[in-house]
Structure formats: C-alpha cells, structure tokens
Amino acid sequence: MLNILGALCFLGWLATLALVRRAEPGGKARHRAAIRTLLLYALGASFGAGLAQRDAWPFARWPMAAGLAVARGENTRLRAVDMHGIEWTVDYRAWQPLGFDELNPWMHRTFPRLDRVARDRVLQHLLGVAERARLRARGGGTVGYFERYLGPLAAPYFDLHPRTWWPGAGTPPEPFVGLRVYKESWDHEERRRHPDRVTRVLVHEYPRR
Amino acid sequence: MKAVRLARNTWERVWFAPESPLNLAAARLVLAFQALWILLSRDIPALSGLPGELWVDVAPAARFRYLLWEGRPGLEAWLQALALLALAGVVLGVATRACCVISGLLLYHLAPLETLFFTPSPWAKGLTLPVLGLLTLSVTRCGERLALLPSEGAVAGNEDAWALRLVRLFVCQQYFFSGWAKLAAAGLGWASAENIRAWLLLANLDDQLVAFGAPGLWLADRPALCLLMGVTALTLDLGFVAAPFFSRARRLLAPAGLLFHLAILLTLNYAFLGAPLLLLLVDWQRPDGRRRHVQEPSSGSGGKSTSSGPATGVTASPS
Q1: Can you give the residue range of the structural domain that contains A12?
Q2: pTM for this structure?
Q3: Distances from the Cα of A140 to the Cαs of A88, A129, A136, B229, in angstroms?
Q4: Domain-embedded: residue A61
Q5: Which pLDDT does position B312 carry in this prediction?
Q6: Domain co-membership, A132 together with A93
Q7: What is the predicted ipTM?
Q8: Are A43 and A134 contained in the same domain?
Q9: Judged by CB atoms within 8 Å, which residues 44-103 of A form the interface with B?
Q10: Do B142 and B255 lie in a common domain?
Q11: Contact B271 A69 (CB under 8 A)
Q12: What is the pLDDT of residues A66-113, one digit of tens each?
C-alpha cells in the first residue's frame, strides 16, 4: 500500500511540475498560480510523509537514530573458509557491488527464512564475489572497486566499517572454498565490560559438510 | 478577511521575495555534484544482476513504483550512463532544464536499486534530495548563471526564488523530520543520558560496524555529556526548520550541521551522505533585491509583496 501511495505521490509531484512548465508562456499571473499549486503540493507531500512518519520516497521521513536503543544487540556475520578449513574475516568492501549496509541486514532478516536450496544459491553467489575480490586484492589491486573513479574521495557507506584487508600480503592468501553465516547476540552493558561476551550460532554453511 | 490578506502577503513574501540568480545556479551545481559523487562511488546497475533469491522480499508494487526488475544490469548501465551525461549537462549549464528533468527522473529510477532488495526507500543513500532538487530546478531559469550556454531570453532570476527556497526547505526537512521522528518514537526521553549511552554502545560494540570506537565509548561512560549530546542533537534537528527562511539561521545552522555530522561520524560511525548538501544553505551572493533595481510590479494576485520586503529595507524572512 505504501508503495502505491508513494508512487502516486511522486506522479502528483511530476504533474504539478508539468503544470508550472505549461503555465510559463501563459503570462505571469498564470505562471505564479501554477507555482503556488506546486508549492502547496510539495509542502503537503513532504510534511505529510515526515510528520506522519510514512515514507513516500523521495518524500522521506528521515528516521535517523529514532527510537529508544535496545539493551541487546544482534547481528549476522559472514566468514569465509579457505582450503585448509581456516576461517577468515571478509572485508566489507569485498561484497561490492553489494553494500554491506544492505547485505548484512538482509542476511539477518531475510536469509534465515529462505529454504536450504535458496540459501545455498545465495551463498554460492556471495562466495564467488568474495573470492574474486580476494584474488584482485591479493594481486595488489584495490579491495572492492567502488573507488575506481574517485579514489579516496569516493562516498563512504552510511555505516562506517573497519578495513580488514589490504592490497597484497594483507589479504587472505588461500582461495576461499566456503562461507559460514553466524548469528551473533549480546547484551550491550555486558559486552562493554567484556568485549568477547558474544553468543554466536551457526545459521548456515556452504557447501554443507 | 484581514487575516487572510495577511496570510497571503506573508506567503508571497516568504516564497517570492527576490533571490540572487547566482544562488540558484549554485544550487544546481551542488545538487548535480552530489548526484555525480554518489553514482561514481557505487555500481548501482550491477545490483540488477543479483540472484533472484535476493529479490524475494521485493513487492511487485515496489518494482512498478520505480520500474525496476532484476536481471537487467545492461539496461541499467545504459540508463546510468544517460544520467551521468545529463548531470554533466546540469553542471556545465547546457540544455539545463532538459538535463535537470532527465537526470531527476533517472535518479528516481536508479537510486532505489541500491537498496530495493532490502528496503524500497533509499533515503539515506545520498540521492533523495538530488531527485527532488533537480526536478524542482527543471522548471526554473537555473541555467542563467554559471553556465556555458546560459538560458536564452532569461530575465532576472528573482521569479525563481521560490525554487531555491523549496530546495532549502527539503534540505532542512532532513533534520527537522529526524528530530520529529525521535520525538514521535520516544518522546523527550530520546535525549536522556541513558538512551544516548545505549545508542553509543549500539554503534560502537559490534566490531563490524566500528571505524572509530574510542570516542563513542569514552562519551558513553559520561552521563552528563550523553545528556548534552542528546539535547543538542534534538535542538539542532528541530531548529533547522528556521533555516530556509532566515539568513541568520542559515549562517549558524550550516556550519553547526557540519560539526554535528563530524561528531556523529566520530562517535556513532554514521556517515550522513546528505551532509554536503548543507552547501545549499550558503548565500553565495546577497539577493539582487537589495540593489533595488529589480523591483517588480504587482502580479495582481497578491504579488505586491514580491518587492515590498527588500525595497523597504526589511530583510525579508526568506533571504
């Protein structure tokens, strides 16, 4: 429903813009009247979305850090496995073109609901992505490729992440042959005192052993 | 009747008081550079090639809303190339109106592709305001200044002052609605030391999400500073509602906003990609209305106030 409303809201916005454009040759008064319509529409749509907290992107509700932070933390972690069975951290840039900020919450929310075959297909794809990134970085190329045009001036992700791989020797040396998905949970206050107090549960592994 | 007339005059003065065409042209550049920055820092078309399993939660209505379907990375790459070309036109000031509308529509199509498999709203990805802003400018003479091929037959850009104010309002809504969302979800308790500490711990304990851990954790252990941070954030967010219409507020809030983002970056590890758009709040040139020669006759429909503010020396609230 929100998708339909959002689409209609945007189409209405385009219609008011077209109205202004059409009114322009018709004289100043007519043009000004069309602009007033556009302004009223823009105010209605943007404040409607924002104040009602119902997203109608591009009229957004901007819920930045809204709400009360919960006492417990949860997340999903993807770990790569090499041919010797050693687990490796995968640098957040290795998933590009997927952004970690979308991939990780998707893995947390949606991935566990997929059937086993679908999970395998997803991890097979991600394994290929991560291995290609490892090969490129191990060979001295960049980790990920989003900096291909703008270098260090490229836009960061919304969430900052630590860089765990470095071109050349700073990248895992052996080919990745598997992926493991873990669900992690912790109590914030407890983890503040003891950083390793994290419960980790294996959700899925590809290929299955 | 008097109240209606007053309201109408205020409306006219707020939206139609003169504004420098240079500021409008600068807004065009800021919006286009922001969109270029994001597009050239990502590979959005490639996301169309993700396996179908990743699209399992995408509602059909969301696909139709943005005309996005999986399995078409080649088509999306062409559309992005067209968007980049149009944005170059916006920057250079060549066929500016056409380029604004083309780039705005293509960004509306492309931006959600970055997040669609997870959420249909890419509000935090840095392209929200370029979509709104470029489409707004597409019906103005924003190509009159700072352009290789200035708009033909252009008159003084004062008639388009409303567009700059609307774009500035969109910028400020990011903050105002962010403050509103905090109040709506948690009330004034959002700013409490306990909640800010909880947010700081949330943002600084998961090693996958932490680039700067020490400042946030240091702050989390100091309740008075947490409370100060919460109150400041909420005040700043809500205070932004004044910025589109008061130049003094803009002069204060634009740099304060940048500092705010820097503090958030260091303590919460959030890089707000809309931060460069605070440049839209900068008055690069004072309104031409102050030079008096651009006073315009009444439009006959409440347009009297168009020139009343600046001509009488009243610093019209919009500027």
Answers
A1: 2-52
A2: 0.91
A3: 19, 17, 7, 42
A4: no
A5: 29
A6: yes
A7: 0.96
A8: no
A9: 46-47, 50-51, 53, 55, 57-71, 73, 75, 77, 92, 96-100, 102
A10: no
A11: no
A12: 989 999 999 999 999 999 999 999 999 999 999 999 999 999 999 999
